[in-house]
Amino acid sequence: MTSTIEPEVGKSRRRKEDERLITGRTRWTDNLTLPGMLHLAVLRSPFAHAKIVSIDVTEAKSAPGVVAVFTGKDLDPEGAIGMPCAWPVTPDMKSPRRPILASDTVNFAGEGVAVVVARTSAEAHDALEMIDVDYDELPVVLGLENALAEGAPLVHEELGTNQNAVWVFDSADAGTGSSVEDAISNSEVVLKRRFRQQRLVPAFMEPRACVVDPTGNQLVMWSATQVPHILKTMTAATLGLPEHKVRVIAPDVGGGFGGKIAVLPEEMMATLIARRLGKPVKWNESRSETMVAAHHGRDQIQDLTITANRDGTVTGLKVELLADMGAYLGLVGPGVPILGAFMFNAIYKFPAYHFACTNVFTNTTLTDAYRGAGRPEATFGIERMMDELAVELGMDPMEIREKNWIKHEEFPFTTVAGLTYDSGNYEAATAKAKQLFDYDGLRREQKERRESGDPVQLGIGISTFTEMCGLAPSRVLGSLDYAAGGWEHAEIRVLPTGKIEVITGASAHGQGHETAWSQIVADKLGVPFEDIEVIHGDTQSSHKGMDTYGSRSLVVGGIAVVNAADKVLAKAKPIAAHLMECAEDDLEFSAGKFSVKGTDSSTSIQDIAWAVFSAHNLPDGVEPSLDSSDTFDPENFSFPHGTHLCAAEVDTETGRVRLRSYVCVDDVGVAVNPLIVEGQVHGGLAQGIAQALFEEAVHDEGGTLTTGTFADYLLPSAADLPSFTTDRTETPSTTNPLGAKGVGEAGTIASTPAVVNAVVDAVRHFGVNDIEMPLTPMRVWHAIQHGSAAAGGLGSEAGGGLGSIDATGGAQ
């Protein structure tokens, strides 16, 4: 029987969750009020490195409304509690204890040293000013190379070094390729460049917050987190609590971008205080606290060597990274640059590859996952290098990419980094992007502007990228020493009236899971979209999950939903056959009904649901339930890809950059909801472009964050960005039944190098081959006036160190 119902998968439905989110008629952490609830405020160190000589809380304790004041020694007198790091990337990785509150030494400006508990938030914050802390300042170390220099001040004296870990991959040793050193010795072209990935602040809409209620049989924590299941397990492990007595709820969460993947010292602090006082407590940070105390992203120096023959064929790639961990290790921070190790080779057929990363401690806020987590850094490096190689060889930058990329007929393709890309078509995405962009026409215009000496020059930037997402096969994560797996769980409950509840371990914070999951289940079970409720974010109702990050929700969590739906149908089939008095083999399922082949006899899922509920007439030995669950562990990553093209106009007299047009054609496999895909791409583009042109976390020489507000840390508005032209090609993934590939990070990963390549392309004839991000007008103007070495010294083999220029033109 052929279905006449329009499929839900592929339909651009508006998100069913948006009405409550946009109108604010919802529940988020800071609007929770519990009986007898107290409020917490954290006193943070103004110094980046100092001994704590004494803390006097006497006056604060007597302040109006104050119930208690705690120091680190009050909460953890034995100094036994340390925040977890789930990714020990090497056996000898150095992992200093990160306390809940600093007791002896502060290691970054913004580290908590005391907490006030009061009846109102205002009273708690007022009392902070009454705490007297005597600090003995210590030498501060900032900058990756400075931290590794002989005689540098040590962030953690007991470690004897600022080096955290060294992780190496070599294709010759791994058996995935030949020796890079041989390629360097034998190739006709050897090109070296140094690039800087500046430090960024994940600027999520909702600051971090938690509420902890210790009353009753369970300790309940509400948190603005991406990872309620991980938070539950880590809270129990960190504080020695029985896990079955801990419940974590992530209500509607206002964005994350990786910035809410952490397990926070403030969450542990709130739990200890709530248990000690026997009352609910709330901690909600200000935006300025977010800027200094929430983890940061990126912050790498990339030394890259690419080798090739004169015809443009690449022969090898060598990557040497320095990655700033900050003062402590985040939950997955040490592994973030390691994720990039598998993506520097990108879509290209390198026969030889070497990657080495040195993680480094500095007196700064720790770094951890930020949208893309290692893959944007890798994509930036290789896409900038492909442009530099094209210039060296006198080739069009698109031509050199086409010469070296994996052809569509070569999939599945195992890369020099050891990953197997299952599907893709870089030719199709690029052809469509070039057509939408008018690539040849813009190149002609660029030539005309150069020849006429136009003060506004035109540059064209390219980024042909792929990424690995859908983190991840558990065995692969295990081989990389990650503490957990990459599976995801889902359940489907079929209610007596035929309505459906979907319980998912993937915890949304703005991605549209409720809509997409409803579309998937509507098609699988043939029930109306409106009859499906998606439940997530509560470890009691959704008892099992690995949460949301790494573009894994759909391609891991969504597949668990698909598999659970298949199990519902498998349970329903013998019941349908019994009700219609036929053999199971005589049945077919379509549009929500089991039908006897060749007849008009049928019964719906709703009829079967009622029959199961009543249980009056079921086959012998069949349980009265259609409810089903599945735990899906992917067999491979998924590999979305795309071609992003940017046209940038640069005013050579002022350094001002204007994005004239931006075209991207992404291949994310099968799109469940194209409207959601479009939104994810647009948001990702905004963040990637922001890194290229606007955002940078800057510290002064004492380690104080000088960009600690949105007045100083520049985020783009809609007026700063062009109207994007987006489109898609589709090569379904072969490793999951949906054919989906993931889209949450694609725009961010691809867009940064496209924009930087465009700006450098516009001013290259002035002797510029790199400008350090963000490409502020002052930095661009300075590069034009003095060449790239003076604009930061990062562009050429002969260029100097890291003496960059800040947004106002002053030396950093």
Automatic annotation (TrEMBL):
Say which domain of life the source belongs to. Bacteria
Gene3D superfamilies xrefs? Aldehyde oxidase/xanthine dehydrogenase, a/b hammerhead (3.90.1170.50), Aldehyde oxidase/xanthine dehydrogenase, molybdopterin binding domain (3.30.365.10)
Which InterPro entries does this UniProt record tie to the protein? Ald_Oxase/Xan_DH_a/b, Ald_Oxase/Xan_DH_a/b_sf, Ald_Oxase/xanthine_DH-like, AldOxase/xan_DH_MoCoBD1, AldOxase/xan_DH_MoCoBD2, AldOxase/xan_DH_Mopterin-bd_sf
The entry's keywords: Molybdenum, Oxidoreductase
Q: Which residues form the Aldehyde oxidase/xanthine dehydrogenase a/b hammerhead domain?
A: 23-139
**Polar residues bias located where?**
725-737
Cofactor(s) named in the record:
Mo-molybdopterin cytosine dinucleotide
* Stated name of the protein: Carbon-monoxide dehydrogenase large subunit
- GO terms for MF: iron ion binding; oxidoreductase activity
**UniProt region (Disordered), positions on chain:** 725-744
- Species name: Amycolatopsis keratiniphila
